[in-house]
Amino acid sequence: VSSYEYRAWLMLWGLGPAYIAYFGLQIAAPAWLVTTPQRLICFAAAAGFQAVVCLIGMTLKGGDRDEAPMSDERDEAIDSRATRAAYYLLMIGAVAVGMGMPFSQGGWKIVNGTLLSVVLAEALRNALIVRGYRGGRRLAH
Amino acid sequence: LPIETLTNDIRVMRLLAHDMTQANLGKRVGLTRQTIAAIEQGRYAPSLEVAFRIAYVFGKSIDEVFRWTPGDALLGSQAETPPAPDGA
Q1: Alpha-carbon gap, residue B13 to A137, rounded angstroms
Q2: Which of A59, A49, A128 is nearest to A87 (CA)?
Q3: What is the pTM of this model?
């Protein structure tokens, strides 16, 4: 597994559980998750979990000497395609959150809408990176 | 229906070149081992520059290493193209 694919897997494993739990709690809105500090702590826990997963994963990968610490044209092509797709998703999210929600929603719904579009874009990017390395479809430069 | 394919003999040429490893070839042409493996398996079509570099390492011309088969769409368009005049 190339280091770029490994990093994308780590991001997916970090993002998935952390933000499924985060948005699940935001939707369920339990009594202990009402005030701004409580919501910020919830967000910090999700971001912290993702950071810990990535740190542990990168520490474990650190011992692999076989991996060349370089990117080549295939890595760049895969990253470029994935980033382009994620950019469009992020743009859709930005338009929805920035141009639609202010007229109908407010406060934490806008914050969570923004966060959702960022998380979805990042998840899409990393999923496409994994697919780029794993997929059987021929990828041209 | 024929589909466009790009195949290559890199694996055979590596074996003939004193069992050159994918990592070694990758190092010489500026690619990772994973990318060399992807090219060998037909999962990645390298840039023209990289294709030239790979051919150069084996002391071959590019068409001795890589083979391209036109796809159905291109074969169809070729049939519609009028033949070039003699001497052109």
Answers
A1: 24
A2: A128
A3: 0.81
Chain B residues near residue A75 by CB distance under 8 angstroms = 32, 35
Cα B30 to Cα A76: distance, rounded to the nearest angstrom: 13
Give the contacts of B37 (CB within 8 A, at least 6 positions apart). B22
Cβ within 8 Å, pair B43-A139: yes
pLDDT more than 70, % of chain A: 91
Amino acid at A118: V
Judge contact between B6 and B44, C-beta under 8 A: no
For A57, the token pair is 């994963």
Residue B52, amino acid: F
Structure tokens at B55: 């051919």
Q: What is the ipTM of this complex?
A: 0.74
What is the distance between the alpha carbons of residues A45 and A54, in angstroms, rounded to a whole number?
14
Kind of pairing between the strands at B5-8 and B66-69: antiparallel
**Contact (CB<8Å) A138/B42:** yes
Chain A contact probe: residue of B31, B50, B66 with most A CBs at under 10 A: B31
